[in-house]
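User: Teach me something about this protein's shape.
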Amino acid sequence: MADASEGPSEGGECYRLVLAPSFSAPKLARDFVGLLLRERGRAAFADDARLCVTELVTNAYRHTDTPTIGLDIVMAPGTTTLYVADDQPWTLPVPGGQDRCEAGAGVGVGPDMDGPGEGGRGMRLVGSLAHAWGMTIHGAHTVGRKHVWCTFVADGGTGVACTWN
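Assistant: First, the predicted structure itself:
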Protein backbone atom coordinates (compact mmCIF):
# COMPACT_ATOMS: atom_id res chain seq x y z
CA MET A 1 0.00 0.00 0.00
CA ALA A 2 1.42 3.37 -1.00
CA ASP A 3 1.14 6.39 1.26
CA ALA A 4 -0.75 9.41 -0.15
CA SER A 5 2.18 11.66 0.72
CA GLU A 6 4.29 9.88 -1.89
CA GLY A 7 2.14 11.27 -4.69
CA PRO A 8 0.47 9.36 -7.50
CA SER A 9 1.98 5.91 -8.08
CA GLU A 10 1.24 2.73 -10.06
CA GLY A 11 -1.77 0.43 -9.63
CA GLY A 12 -5.45 1.73 -9.61
CA GLU A 13 -7.17 4.40 -11.70
CA CYS A 14 -5.68 7.90 -12.10
CA TYR A 15 -7.11 10.92 -13.84
CA ARG A 16 -5.35 14.20 -14.52
CA LEU A 17 -6.59 17.70 -15.25
CA VAL A 18 -4.26 20.65 -15.90
CA LEU A 19 -5.78 24.06 -15.21
CA ALA A 20 -4.75 27.59 -16.00
CA PRO A 21 -4.50 29.62 -12.78
CA SER A 22 -7.70 31.58 -13.26
CA PHE A 23 -10.87 32.58 -11.47
CA SER A 24 -12.69 29.68 -13.15
CA ALA A 25 -10.14 26.99 -12.13
CA PRO A 26 -11.88 26.03 -8.83
CA LYS A 27 -15.24 25.56 -10.58
CA LEU A 28 -13.71 23.49 -13.39
CA ALA A 29 -11.94 21.26 -10.84
CA ARG A 30 -15.09 20.95 -8.69
CA ASP A 31 -17.23 19.95 -11.68
CA PHE A 32 -14.62 17.48 -12.95
CA VAL A 33 -14.27 15.79 -9.56
CA GLY A 34 -18.03 15.60 -8.99
CA LEU A 35 -18.78 14.11 -12.40
CA LEU A 36 -15.89 11.67 -12.24
CA LEU A 37 -16.67 10.37 -8.76
CA ARG A 38 -20.35 9.91 -9.54
CA GLU A 39 -19.52 8.17 -12.84
CA ARG A 40 -17.03 5.83 -11.11
CA GLY A 41 -19.47 4.84 -8.33
CA ARG A 42 -18.03 7.03 -5.59
CA ALA A 43 -20.98 9.34 -5.07
CA ALA A 44 -20.95 8.71 -1.30
CA PHE A 45 -18.16 11.26 -0.83
CA ALA A 46 -18.44 13.22 -4.10
CA ASP A 47 -19.89 16.34 -2.44
CA ASP A 48 -17.18 16.39 0.25
CA ALA A 49 -14.49 15.88 -2.40
CA ARG A 50 -15.96 18.72 -4.47
CA LEU A 51 -15.73 21.10 -1.51
CA CYS A 52 -12.17 20.04 -0.73
CA VAL A 53 -10.87 20.32 -4.30
CA THR A 54 -12.47 23.76 -4.55
CA GLU A 55 -10.47 24.87 -1.51
CA LEU A 56 -7.20 23.34 -2.67
CA VAL A 57 -7.42 24.79 -6.19
CA THR A 58 -8.53 28.17 -4.83
CA ASN A 59 -5.45 28.23 -2.58
CA ALA A 60 -3.16 27.45 -5.52
CA TYR A 61 -4.83 30.18 -7.59
CA ARG A 62 -4.96 32.87 -4.90
CA HIS A 63 -1.70 32.30 -3.06
CA THR A 64 0.83 31.25 -5.72
CA ASP A 65 2.10 32.51 -9.06
CA THR A 66 2.22 29.01 -10.55
CA PRO A 67 1.89 28.83 -14.37
CA THR A 68 -0.40 25.78 -14.11
CA ILE A 69 -2.44 24.03 -11.44
CA GLY A 70 -2.40 20.26 -11.65
CA LEU A 71 -5.19 18.04 -10.37
CA ASP A 72 -4.63 14.30 -10.06
CA ILE A 73 -7.41 12.00 -8.88
CA VAL A 74 -6.25 8.58 -7.72
CA MET A 75 -8.82 5.82 -7.14
CA ALA A 76 -7.85 2.59 -5.40
CA PRO A 77 -10.34 0.13 -3.93
CA GLY A 78 -12.39 2.12 -1.40
CA THR A 79 -10.02 5.10 -1.44
CA THR A 80 -9.85 8.29 -3.49
CA THR A 81 -7.06 10.83 -3.16
CA LEU A 82 -7.07 14.27 -4.76
CA TYR A 83 -3.69 15.92 -5.41
CA VAL A 84 -3.48 19.60 -6.31
CA ALA A 85 -0.05 20.69 -7.58
CA ASP A 86 1.59 24.06 -8.02
CA ASP A 87 5.11 25.36 -8.62
CA GLN A 88 5.36 27.34 -5.37
CA PRO A 89 6.56 24.71 -2.88
CA TRP A 90 7.24 27.14 -0.04
CA THR A 91 3.76 28.68 -0.10
CA LEU A 92 2.06 26.24 2.26
CA PRO A 93 -1.58 26.03 3.35
CA VAL A 94 -2.14 26.59 7.06
CA PRO A 95 -5.24 25.49 8.92
CA GLY A 96 -6.55 28.34 11.01
CA GLY A 97 -9.50 30.58 11.51
CA GLN A 98 -10.67 33.25 13.86
CA ASP A 99 -9.40 31.47 16.96
CA ARG A 100 -5.82 31.42 15.68
CA CYS A 101 -5.90 35.09 14.70
CA GLU A 102 -7.14 36.10 18.11
CA ALA A 103 -4.23 34.19 19.60
CA GLY A 104 -1.88 36.43 17.62
CA ALA A 105 -0.84 33.85 15.03
CA GLY A 106 -1.34 36.33 12.19
CA VAL A 107 -3.21 33.85 9.99
CA GLY A 108 -5.56 35.58 7.57
CA VAL A 109 -3.98 39.01 7.65
CA GLY A 110 -2.44 40.26 4.44
CA PRO A 111 -3.03 42.19 1.25
CA ASP A 112 -4.95 39.37 -0.46
CA MET A 113 -7.07 38.42 2.55
CA ASP A 114 -10.40 39.76 3.63
CA GLY A 115 -9.18 40.57 7.12
CA PRO A 116 -8.52 38.81 10.39
CA GLY A 117 -9.93 35.34 10.65
CA GLU A 118 -10.53 34.78 6.93
CA GLY A 119 -7.41 32.72 6.23
CA GLY A 120 -7.07 29.04 7.02
CA ARG A 121 -10.74 28.20 7.40
CA GLY A 122 -10.75 26.25 4.15
CA MET A 123 -8.00 23.91 5.30
CA ARG A 124 -9.94 23.28 8.50
CA LEU A 125 -12.88 22.36 6.29
CA VAL A 126 -10.67 19.98 4.30
CA GLY A 127 -9.45 18.44 7.55
CA SER A 128 -13.00 17.91 8.77
CA LEU A 129 -14.29 16.33 5.53
CA ALA A 130 -11.35 14.21 4.35
CA HIS A 131 -9.99 11.08 6.01
CA ALA A 132 -6.50 12.62 5.81
CA TRP A 133 -4.74 15.54 4.15
CA GLY A 134 -1.19 16.77 3.81
CA MET A 135 1.51 18.30 1.65
CA THR A 136 4.39 16.83 -0.29
CA ILE A 137 7.23 18.96 -1.62
CA HIS A 138 9.05 17.45 -4.61
CA GLY A 139 12.63 17.96 -5.74
CA ALA A 140 16.10 16.81 -4.80
CA HIS A 141 18.59 19.63 -5.16
CA THR A 142 16.12 22.16 -6.51
CA VAL A 143 12.67 22.16 -5.02
CA GLY A 144 10.18 22.62 -7.80
CA ARG A 145 6.67 21.39 -7.11
CA LYS A 146 4.24 20.86 -4.26
CA HIS A 147 1.20 18.61 -3.94
CA VAL A 148 -1.49 19.35 -1.39
CA TRP A 149 -3.61 16.23 -1.10
CA CYS A 150 -6.65 14.86 0.66
CA THR A 151 -7.93 11.30 0.89
CA PHE A 152 -11.47 9.96 1.16
CA VAL A 153 -12.02 6.42 2.39
CA ALA A 154 -15.15 4.37 1.81
CA ASP A 155 -15.89 1.09 3.54
CA GLY A 156 -13.09 -1.35 2.77
CA GLY A 157 -10.61 1.31 1.64
CA THR A 158 -7.05 0.04 1.39
CA GLY A 159 -4.68 2.67 0.07
CA VAL A 160 -3.53 4.77 -2.86
CA ALA A 161 -2.20 3.36 -6.11
CA CYS A 162 -2.89 4.00 -9.80
CA THR A 163 -2.32 3.54 -13.51
CA TRP A 164 -2.88 6.64 -15.66
CA ASN A 165 -6.06 6.94 -17.74
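Now, about its shape. Residues 97-116, 158-165 have pLDDT under 50 and may be disordered. The CA atoms of residues 31 and 48 lie 12 Å apart. If you'd like, I can walk through any region in more detail.
User: That's plenty for now, thanks!
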